[in-house]
Fold this sequence. Notes:
By secondary structure, the chain is an alpha+beta fold. It has helices at 11-22, 39-44, 64-74, 85-120, 127-150, 161-175, 185-195, 201-204; strands at 3-6, 28-31, 52-54, 60-62.
Amino acid sequence: xxxxxxxxxxxxxxxxxxxxxxxxxxxxxxxxxxxxxxxxxxxxxxxxxxxxxxxxxxxxxxxxxxxxxxxxxxxxxxxxxxxxxxxxxxxxxxxxxxxxxxxxxxxxxxxxxxxxxxxxxxxxxxxxxxxxxxxxxxxxxxxxxxxxxxxxxxxxxxxxxxxxxxxxxxxxxxxxxxxxxxxxxxxxxxxxxxxxxxxxxxxxxxxxxxxxxxxxxxxxxx
Length: 222
C-alpha cells in the first residue's frame, strides 16, 4: 500500500489527501512532525517538507505539485486535470494561484502565524501579518465567488485539482475560524459543495492537538 507523509494543517498535504480520495487510491497516512528533522524522513526528502508520497514500488515523490502530476500519470482513470490543453492550462493556473498567491497572502499570514509558529517554535504571532491576512482573504473569496457564479466548478464544467487546491487552503483557514463566510455567499455555496464530497470528509474529522475548530467546521450545511 502507498504511504503519504503529511501534517494535518498543511494545505499542500490536504490537497494530496483529497486527490487520493477522488482517485480512490488507498494509502496509509503517517503524520510527520517536520520540526523533529528525523533522519529517516530526511533520507526520503532532504528538503524536510511534506507531503511525501511513497508508492507501492518504493518510488518516492516529494512536493504537492510533483505528486499531483505523478498521480495523474500513474492513475489516469479519474482525471483531476480533465479536458483539452486549454482546460488543463486553466486548472494549472488556478492551482498556482492558490498554492502561491493565496498561500503567501492568506494561509501563511493566518495559519502560519497562529498555528505553525507555535509548532515550529519560531516566535510569537505577528499582529500585522494577521491583519494583512484578514484583509487579503476578502479579495480571494470575492474571486472564488466570481468564478463560482460563472462556472460549474472553479476551472470549468468539471471538478478538478483547482477546486481541491482552493478548498484545501480555505479549509485550513476555516479550521481557525478566520473565513468571513457571511459576506461571501457564492464562495460559501461552492465550498459547501466541496465539503459534501466523500474525498473531503476525512479533512473535516481532523483535530489538531490543543486547537479545536469552530462548530461549523465539520458541518456540511453551515
